[in-house]
Write a structure and sequence with these properties.
This is Response regulator. InterPro entries: CheY-like_superfamily (IPR011006), HATPase_C_sf (IPR036890), HATPase_dom (IPR003594), His_kinase_dom (IPR005467), PAS (IPR000014), PAS-assoc_C (IPR000700), PAS-like_dom_sf (IPR035965), Sensor_HK_TwoCompSys (IPR050482). Keywords: Coiled coil, Kinase, Phosphoprotein, Transferase, Two-component regulatory system. This protein folds into 4 domains: 107 residues, 3-Layer(aba) Sandwich (Rossmann fold); 115 residues; 102 residues, Beta-Lactamase; 136 residues, Heat Shock Protein 90, CATH 3.30.565. Helix content is 51%, strand content 21%. The strands form 3 sheets. The protein has a 5-stranded parallel beta sheet with strand order 2-1-3-4-5, with helices on both faces. Helix 2 runs parallel beside helix 3, helix 5 packs antiparallel against helix 9 and helix 13 runs antiparallel to helix 14. The radius of gyration is 36 Å and the shape is elongated.
Length: 505
């Protein structure tokens, strides 16, 4: 049975949440904990579908509990919805999201708002669980296939150590003068039917389906040695592979009188190589399908973000705006000072709520991206950074157009936003430049800062060991056949460049 865990030191809140879940989520088992430590123990033991977490609690507050759960392997995938009266404060909301929370809802809340938040989180978790299961199945398949291939390779290596081999000798005309008896076990022909009767060209079938001389023939004509030449023979509807090596022989006077050599039966090895190539091709197809699935999942997530953002704007945003307008219409009336003060305070609260809902809408899915395009969205993002963080920002290439497929615009926007967030978190910079340009067959989007920089330079394709942010960027870039280059010098800042082909569109 699916479970939902609520962690709150207030028993009344737990009773209220229990009643809500009994009404709207009867298929879920409601679990509760009255402290952070107890909540962690229940989460690790029961593995619920979602955790509702209060912030203000004794011993361990909600931020500490959230950070701990997100670090643990067993619970890191569980979505956490923070519920607190502190949610009105954007600083506290940001602190909660940075601790690992997946969503935030402020007290007091309406049941409809709570249900909507929970439904969204559960939908995203369901998609993530599906992808995780498919990843695990693919990993098991690849591991199993790899184990089988390694076992096959080891088996065939053991066979090759005891492989059948025959020695041979031909005269200056290429006619066999000697073959060792074991040739009968390999090719099914008796030596006396070969010696003096067949040439190396006919026995090795060098004349079948060839328009030019083989390496063995060229070596014979040039009286030079050859090594490990693979020969494919068709004998009685069966394919036999030989590895042939030989060297020229001369008499005491230096006159060429033939070749001597050895042939190894490598049929098993070749069959294994062919099977391995076929299996590797299948694995590549699986990887291609997984990559496609990841792309589709990301696009679905972005579409869901956009839908939620539009609903916030069209419903909550409009309601707040209308309430503010109606309240403003009576602000100039003659009310007692106490009433007038309360009206002013309500007006300010409504104005803050409108601002917060607008910010949340843009964070979820910026409307300017879909209405005006990438460059205006970049410009808006820089303006927000300059306004909130007092960092000087500059946009170069404002008139440049990026002609990639519309559904991939959000990938590129998220990548640039992630790079800008990295500057805010780590660079300690006071200036950021964003440059967009096109050269030949590529677009170059660079984020430069004048911060502290770092020692380690990443190569042309930034490695995944740079953290989750870089891994997320690389996954998105794979979807549009792009790459990331990062250059940094200690004390001189960092330059991160996203490179994507112009043909992707």
């Amino acid at each position: 049975m699916k479970k939902i865990l609520a962690i709150d030191d207030n028993e009344i809140n737990l009773v209220l949440l229990n009643q809500i879940f009994k009404l709207y989520y009867p298929d879920f088992l409601f679990l509760q904990a009255t402290s952070g430590k107890e909540g962690i123990e229940v989460a690790v033991t029961e593995i619920p579908e979602i955790i509702l977490l209060d912030i203000l609690m004794p011993e361990m507050n909600g931020y500490e509990v959230c950070a701990y759960l997100k670090k643990e392997t067993a619970t890191c995938h569980i979505p956490i919805l923070m519920i607190s009266a502190l949610g009105q404060n954007p600083i506290e909301r940001t602190k909660g999201l940075n601790a690992g929370a997946d969503a935030f809802i402020s007290k007091p809340f309406s049941q409809d708002e709570l249900r909507a938040q929970i439904d969204v989180v559960l939908r995203i978790k369901k998609a993530e669980d599906l992808l995780r299961k498919r990843n695990e199945s693919l990993e098991v398949l690849i591991k199993d296939q790899t184990t089988k291939y390694l076992q096959s390779e080891e088996r065939y290596l053991q066979i090759s150590e005891h492989a059948l081999e025959f020695y041979w000798e031909v005269d200056s005309k290429g006619i066999f003068t000697y073959v060792s008896p074991v040739i009968e076990k390999i090719l099914g022909e008796k030596p006396d039917r070969i010696v003096g009767e067949k040439s190396y060209i006919s026995l090795f079938q060098l004349h079948f389906g060839r328009t030019k001389k083989s390496t063995i023939e060229e070596s014979f004509l040039n009286q030079s040695s050859f090594n490990d030449c693979e020969i494919e023979l068709k004998i009685k509807r069966e394919t036999i592979w030989l590895s042939a090596s030989g060297f020229s022989t001369f008499d005491k006077k230096g006159k060429f009188y033939g070749f001597r050599g050895v042939c190894y039966d490598i049929t098993k090895r070749k069959e294994a190589e062919i099977a391995l190539k076929k299996s590797l091709k299948q694995i590549k197809n699986y990887q291609k399908k997984l990559k496609y699935l990841n792309t589709e999942l990301t696009l679905v997530e972005e579409r869901e973000r956009r839908r939620i953002a539009e609903n916030l704007h069209d419903s909550l945003g409009q309601t707040l705006s209308l309430a503010y307008i109606k309240l403003s219409s009576i602000m100039n009336e003659n009310f007692p000072p106490r009433v007038q003060k309360t009206i002013n305070e309500i007006s300010e609260l409504l104005n803050n709520a409108i601002s917060e809902s607008r910010t949340l809408t843009y964070d979820l899915s910026p409307p300017i991206l879909y209405e005006l395009g990438l460059i205006p969205a970049f410009k808006w993002k820089l303006e927000q950074i300059e306004m909130k963080h007092e960092i000087q920002t500059t946009l170069h290439g404002e008139n440049q157009k990026i002609g990639i497929r519309k559904e991939f615009n959000i990938f590129l926007y998220r990548i640039v936003a992630e790079l800008l967030n990295n500057v805010l978190k780590h660079a300690q910079a006071n200036s950021v430049e964003l440059e967009v340009k096109k050269e030949k067959k590529y677009y170059y989007i660079s984020v430069r800062d004048n911060g502290i920089g770092f020692k380690k330079n990443l190569d042309k394709k930034a490695k995944l060991d740079g953290g989750f942010g870089l891994m997320s960027i690389n996954e998105r870039l794979d979807n549009i056949k792009g790459r990331l280059e990062i250059k940094s010098v200690m004390g001189e800042g960092t330059n991160a460049t996203v490179i994507i082909p112009t043909s992707e569109g």
